[in-house]
Design brief:
The chain is mainly α. 68% of the residues lie in helices and 0% in strands. It has one domain.
């Protein structure tokens, strides 16, 4: 079974998954993972913006 495409995912689920990726990559301190960390952080920030766009009343 193939994973859902990013556009088809629930914004809250996607944000949680990307945030955990960022946290995991932040713990590793090698140069090779710096690029992966920055890419994951960018995707997580985009997912957070999308989540805020879909659920504007939830940020209280």
């Amino acid at each position: 079974m193939r994973p859902k495409r990013i556009r088809d995912r629930d914004p809250q689920e996607l944000h949680a998954e990307l945030a955990s990726q960022v946290n995991r990559l932040a713990r590793v301190r090698s140069r090779d993972n710096r690029c992966a960390y920055l890419k994951a952080a960018r995707r997580e920030a985009e997912a957070a913006r999308n989540l805020a766009r879909y659920n504007p009343g939830d940020w209280s």
